[in-house]
Design a protein that fits this description.
- There is one protein chain.
- This protein is α/β, with parallel strands linked by helices.
- It has three domains: about 120 residues, Nitrogenase molybdenum iron protein domain (Rossmann fold, 3-Layer(aba) Sandwich), CATH 3.40.50.1980; about 100 residues, Nitrogenase molybdenum iron protein domain (Rossmann fold, 3-Layer(aba) Sandwich), CATH 3.40.50.1980; about 140 residues, Nitrogenase molybdenum iron protein domain (Rossmann fold, 3-Layer(aba) Sandwich).
- The longest helix is centred in the middle third of the chain and has 24 residues.
Length: about 400
């Protein structure tokens, strides 16, 4: 295993804890998020979360003489526009150790100490949740959804698909972590399902993941057993229908083309989901997995790493037919088919709310894989006309 020796702030493949905290907090529509730091600290998360955030844009004199006046000015400008304000501390103010408690205003201003050197995105996401301190209300009906993160290109699609499946089973949707109103975090339901286990909130009783068809089925069986009125059968029927469609399409593909050799680079949970799907339905050769947030599980000659130079060598050595990951990995193997599974995804228009989680998530990933691989291996149009 090869690990990147740079700090999280210096590694574009490993978003830092500050970015994770911003991703968590910016999911609450009535909460203003202020990045307390330099312009560089502001613009990186601002480019990923897709919603307006705010910054103090500290300069040298404020670092020398104190940052409180500048932060107080930004808070005054936002006062009355949001129900609450969350201030995310970055590296320099954290090291300075200023006491900013006087700006708290009886809980209307939250301070999240999540400098980049604290760790990776997941660490910052959890630090922000700990600061918010979610509460379970046993009287709240339904099921919470967690694992929804604003830096994820599939954030909104995952939330929509999770809500659709819960509705299909007759389960009301409670709090969505984190794509909801702020007050919802303090009246969460007793049960929770996740769209991305890497970002499990820890709120309520965990009933399972929605990543992968098997996981969806098992999760809704648990919900059916735990909550009166929840019926897992409609979801099971959808899973069977989706499984049949994927098998039919993959069978047609494999009559014409060999199984692809694949490199996967994504978060640990997403990478495992994609690898299982491709192995099961296409018999794909998973050459290597590079997990963004933690050492990923690999087999054979595969390796895991968060160091782009190491990932570049892994991809070149593997000579893949298909790369699943971000724009970074795509540049290394321009001749391979490519499917985007993690940010950044540059050079693509992404308007629709595409999912990775749930039944639709499995179908959409296989759509992308089969189309990308078929295009790469394209024969004369007359031979491919009825491929799918």
């Amino acid at each position: 295993m090869q690990n990147d020796q740079r700090t999280p702030c210096e590694n574009p493949l490993w978003p830092c804890a500050m970015t994770g905290a911003v991703a968590c907090l910016s999911g609450f529509e009535d909460l203003a998020v202020v990045v307390h730091g330099s312009s560089g600290c502001y613009f990186y998360p601002a480019s990923l979360v897709g919603v307006p955030i705010h910054g103090t844009f500290l300069v040298e004199s404020e670092v020398i003489f104190g940052t409180e006046p500048r932060l107080a000015e930004v808070i005054r400008e936002l006062d009355g526009r949001y129900s609450r304000i969350a201030v995310v501390n970055t590296c320099v103010p954290a090291i300075m150790g200023e006491d900013l408690a006087g700006l708290a205003r009886d809980g209307q201003v939250l301070f999240v100490d999540s400098p980049g050197f604290l760790g990776d995105l997941e660490a910052g996401y959890r630090r922000a949740l700990d600061t918010i301190a979610p509460e379970v209300d046993t009287g709240t009906p339904g099921v919470n959804i967690d694992g929804v993160c604003r830096t994820d290109p599939f954030c909104r699609g995952n939330a929509i698909e999770a809500r659709r499946l819960l509705s299909l089973a007759g389960a009301p949707v409670a709090t969505t972590f984190c794509l909801d109103r702020y007050d919802a975090v303090h009246r969460a339901a007793p049960f929770t399902v996740g769209t991305n286990p890497d970002l499990a909130s820890g709120v309520g009783t965990w009933c399972g993941s929605l990543l992968g068809l098997d996981a969806v089925g098992e999760t809704f069986e648990r919900l059916s057993a735990a909550i009166d009125g929840v019926d897992s059968r409609p979801v099971a029927e959808e899973i069977a229908w989706a499984d049949a469609r994927i098998r039919k399409a993959c069978g047609k593909y494999l009559k014409r083309f060999d199984p692809p050799r694949v490199v996967i680079a994504a978060s640990n949970a997403y990478a495992a989901f994609a690898g299982d799907l491709l192995d099961r339905y296409l018999g794909a050769d998973i050459a290597c997995v590079a997990a963004r947030n933690a050492p990923g599980g690999c087999s054979g000659d595969a390796t895991s790493s968060t160091d782009f130079s190491a990932i570049r060598e892994m991809i070149r050595d593997a000579e893949p037919d298909l790369v699943i990951g971000s724009s970074y990995e795509r540049t290394v193997a321009p001749g391979a088919a490519f499917v985007g599974l993690t940010s950044p995804l540059r050079g693509r228009v992404l308007l629709s709310s595409r999912a990775v989680a749930g039944v639709e998530g499995a179908l959409q990933l296989m759509d992308d894989v089969l189309n990308a691989c078929a295009n790469r291996n394209r024969r004369p149009e007359s031979e491919n006309a009825d491929l799918f």
